[in-house]
Amino acid sequence: MSEADAARSWRRFDRRRRIGRFSAVLVALVAFAVSWRFLDMGVTNVETVPREIRDLLTRMYPPDLAYAPEIVDPLVETIHIAALGTLGALVLAVPVALLAAENTTPNAGTYWLGKLIVTVSRSVNTIVWALIFVVVFGSGPLAGAVAIAFRSVGFLGKLLGEEIEEIDFGQVEAVRAAGASSTQVLLYGVLPQVKPALVGLSVYRWDINVRDSTILGFVGAGGIGVQLFRAVNAFAWQSVATILIVILGVVLVSEGVSASARRMTR
Amino acid sequence: MATEERTWRRPTAFGRREFKWAGYLAVVGFFLWSAWGIGADPARIASGFGRGLTLLGDFFPPDATPRQARRIVDKMVESVAMAMISTVTGIALSVPVAFMAAENLSPRPLYYLNRGFISLSRALNAIIVAILVVKAVGLGPLAGIITITFKTVGFFAKLLAEDLEDIDMGSVDAVRATGASPVQTLAYGVVPQIIPRFAGLSVYRWDINIRTSTVVGIVGAGGIGSVLLTAFNRYSYQYVSAILVAIIAVVLVAEGVSAVVRRRYQ
Amino acid sequence: MTLDVTDLRKTYESGDEALKGVDLSVGGSETTAMIGPSGAGKSTFIRCINRLTEPTAGTVELDGTDLTALDDDGLRAARRDIGMIFQEYNLVERLTVMENVLTGRLGYVSAWRAFRRNFPPEDVERAYEILERVGLGDMENKRVDELSGGQRQRVGIARAVVQQPKILLVDEPTSSLDPETSNTVMRLLTEIAAEREVPVLINIHEVDLAVEHADRIVGLHDGEVVFEGLTSELDEGALDRVYRGGDPPASRDATAPGGSTAPGDSTAPGDSTAPGSPSRNGSDSTAADGTADDGSAGDRAVGNGVVSADGRAPDRSTSGGS
Known about the structure:
A: MetI-like fold; 12 helices; globular; B: about 270 residues; mainly alpha; MetI-like fold; about 80% helix; Phosphonate ABC transporter ATPase (chain C); ATP binding (chain C); nucleotide-binding (chain C); ABC-type phosphonate transporter activity (chain C)
């Protein structure tokens, strides 16, 4: 072997990957610095933050447990909103998914219509949908449930559509070859194949919706957020703490229910 | 052949048909209760439908005066800048949290503390966090940054901690067996195992943060959300739809960038 | 009952001419086996009969009704009379055996009854009888994904037979099965068809299975019929034409297909299999046949809208493959 080989150097990554990684980190840091300058943040501004947060937390302690009975009704309302919103979304999402899946959509126009619905629904936040539906239905939980439904359609439509694109088309064909109608083909050829996904995704979205429906109250769309907003504005921090604890509990429970329900459907 | 015709019923997962019907009945009953609970009577929905069509008409076409347009751009840049900063700070903060929340690397009390922090961050919606932070540090983008950072830590530290728990302890032990210090063990035994997913998740979270940064302004935490709320309150719906179009555009661009980067990296 | 196919042609969007004018009649209660190398157009031909693949030209007449001229509703009604058995079984994996068999009766019940699995008692009784006939007597509540390959193909047969079809189309019924099961399935198929006096058209690439179970053989090469006759008439020369595109003897009026196709052309299955000895092809050619034949047909199928029952592909690029 030649002399040069003896002095081989070793680097963990080849040159291109190292440059790639380096520039990624660089871009992130530059973006960070530029943004910081743009927002005129300064440093003193940030220094006081830990103290202010600690202040707030101290005022929250101890939570006002006597307040708990007052939030039972809003809490139940929140759960209703999440449930109905998910149900509505599911009803709307099935046709949207059929449009947005390449193998079931009738033509290119309907395919793009499906994609458009999915995109708009997903890009607009729940609280913005709630602003819109409060104008439509007036203040109250109905607006909230519709907002939740409109937000969830995109999520369910997209994921369900992807699931439909994955199905074994041979099974669909066999049902069609027996002389089944379009509806029957959907019922026997498509539905059984996507049923686990359908159940799993709905339960998962319901879980997310429980969280989302806690904020609807800020724009007047019902749920526990109404109470929370009121307590915050009254600086009743101990009541706020109680509400937060309750929300945390509900969210954890719904997460557990959702996880075990998804495990059960195979 | 048997003279009597046999019947067949689909076997049910509930064991007995009575249970199945009871189950269905309970579900239907629950949804009816929900509908009643949120005041979803048909008359209200029907009148809302009419008003919805009117509102849709008011939305079109999206329109903004030059001044409004400039404001949209200004505040949109603010949103994006907030997202940039909080992604970097959030990821930076989530690394220590993740290590402390990994069952195999962290002592018990510290583990539970950090797990609790992660659960709290994930359970509370960004809007709720933003409201509290605004009360603590005042209106403006700083509140938004703190909110999004907090949410980022919850998301990121959880996934990172799970990755850390899944790492192959064999190779960690192997590095340690060569006499490496704890820091060296981390650098050579742990970090290489989690880096690939880390990069993908960062970009994914950045995408989510862009979405969040466009709404936290609704409760005063900076960004385009405040403009949206003002426009809603002034009933200038064409302006509203112009803002919504801008939000959807930015969200789509972020999603596209994130998807491309993740695909190229993996 | 007769099936008359006249000048059937299929050209795929890619420009592949899968069928170049095929004429064929099937009638009475005979079993006709269609043999040919992979890519010869066997699957396309079968699928064009019930228009899972839309033929480009030609007519398919079932008891005098031209299937190619039917609208959606007419086609659905016509498909009730055509039982089809697939290579990959194509059973709905997550449904029970009984539900899969009853799929064959969907053309006769409303969507609502189908949704509730509320089939007429005589349909259920018939399904039970057929399940017993194919040897799955107590399996009706098993989910299909729990069954073995042979059992699945029996369910496939039951599903087709419960339609009380006027003809059975069978597309490579054995290529996913081991040799022994293949034989049993073929025997079962031909026996049931004979009992019910239903003619059968089978696509099959295993020549010895075809010879053993069929009454008549049709040889397809490169989209054209190059042999048609009784099983006993299938000689080495005929096999040579079918599998190698060799020049036909003067006694046959079929024109030589792809005369330029030299022997040993890559489409011919298993060159190691001497064309003179009709032994079963190797498993590798089995696989090749399956993928190649289905590749063209299956790709198209993916593009079909479920909502349009006619099987016409929407004008989008197809995705996914089969």
